[in-house]
Write a structure and sequence with these properties.
Elements: E1 2-11, E2 15-18, H1 39-50, E3 54-57, H2 64-79, E4 88-92, H3 111-119, E5 127-131, H4 137-151, E6 156-164, E7 181-191, E8 196-204, E9 213-217, E10 228-232, H5 234-256, E11 263-268, H6 273-285, H7 300-303, H8 310-319, E12 333-340, E13 344-351
Parallel strand pairs: 4-5, 4-6, 11-12
Antiparallel strand pairs: 1-7, 2-3, 6-7, 8-13, 9-10, 12-13
């Protein structure tokens, strides 16, 4: 038995934030001193490294669970199923519902329970829970759905990745330009044919790596130092990802029995364009190959880094013809991969 994605949906916020939005920001160093470079130079360097020109911020009336609900509605409709037949709702996020204008996280009740309520699902045997796994959360949710279905505990799962990172950023930190908001959702079911998940890999590195992404104080010394924001050691994450993600992808692909030349697309977490390109290049070098052109679809240029939402959103957009020069056809071999806070790494090989 394999598991198969039978429905996809995404919600892309309408509020577009271009790089120009940051031209008047006061960017500071970690010690609170002003950065010597002008904002024009800072933004230019940022774009060259990350590839981000625009990102999306959620509309003020929406929280993370609202974005997830809207994406889930589309996935359920796309799959053509009765939502009352869903056995598990697995909701990957990191910061809960953060109301516009605040930085306080709200996770009670669970966001998965909120989505179930919004969907109007009355079946008490539809179990709803949240998954906190950093940016690889949606991929991990798919792996958990795989386990539930293969064990006989479920026949059908709704796996969601959604986040509103724009509400937990320090405006004085250059890294705040990376983050964005969005949601992606998928229906996962058993497959009795050749399509579906072929293999997977997952791992948590929690020695020094555990602190690479964290909740920290603002770089502005005049702000409340008890209020926390998402922070990261970008260079350490970059080095960690390049050292570990390609090997994990190779292990996953080798377990599937699929040849590297048969892989059609690699859907990797949209974290940073240069980092993702380097990961793919190193992955192919492990096979003494050069990465083919057009192997890695990207959405980060227009949508930014929406954490757990990037991979399911990218998948949905490709299937709906919204990523230029990319398509997925029946029988195509795909690799889904992600890396993020934990530090966590995961991947799975999938025949569409």
């Amino acid at each position: 038995m394999k598991i198969k994605i039978t429905g996809t949906g995404s919600y892309i916020p309408e509020r577009i934030i271009s790089d120009k939005y940051f031209e008047l920001h006061q960017f500071l160093n970690e010690d609170g001193t002003p950065i010597k470079q002008s904002n024009e130079v800072i933004i230019k360097k940022f774009k060259a490294i990350t590839g981000i020109e625009e990102r999306r911020y959620a509309e003020s009336q929406y929280n993370t669970s609202d974005l997830a609900f809207l994406a889930s509605q589309k996935a359920i409709e796309n799959a053509g199923i009765d939502p009352e037949t869903i056995d598990y709702i697995i909701f990957a996020h990191n910061f809960g519902d953060v109301k516009h204008g605040t930085v306080q996280s709200d996770m009670i009740p669970s966001l998965a329970s909120r989505v179930k309520h919004k969907l109007g699902i009355k079946n008490p045997k539809c179990v709803a829970y949240d998954l906190i796994f950093g940016c690889p959360g949606w991929v991990e949710g798919v792996l958990q759905a795989n386990a539930f279905i293969k064990s006989g505990m479920a026949n059908r799962c709704l796996v969601i990745g959604a986040e509103t990172l724009s509400r937990v950023v320090d405006d004085h930190d250059r890294d705040s330009m990376i983050y964005s908001d969005g949601a992606g959702a998928t229906i996962i079911e058993a497959s009795d044919n050749e399509t579906g998940m072929l293999s997977y890999e997952t791992a948590s590195y929690t020695e020094e790596e555990a602190g690479f992404l964290f909740y920290g104080k603002s770089y502005h010394p005049g702000l409340d130092q008890n209020t926390k924001y998402i922070k990261m050691y970008g260079r350490k994450i970059y080095e960690f990802a390049l050292s570990n993600v390609p090997a994990a992808m190779k292990s996953c692909l080798d377990k599937s029995g699929i040849a590297i030349d048969d892989v059609k697309k690699i859907l990797i977490h949209q974290a940073n364009e240069k980092m993702d390109e380097a990961i793919i290049d190193r992955f192919y070098k492990l096979y003494d190959k050069t990465a083919p052109a057009n192997i890695m679809p990207m959405s980060i240029h227009d949508l930014g880094n929406s954490s757990v939402a990037t991979v399911p959103t990218l998948f949905d957009l490709i299937l709906n013809g919204q990523i230029e020069d990319h398509e997925i056809n029946k029988g195509d071999i795909l690799i889904f991969a992600s890396v993020g806070a934990g530090m966590n790494i995961n991947a799975f090989v999938y025949r569409y």
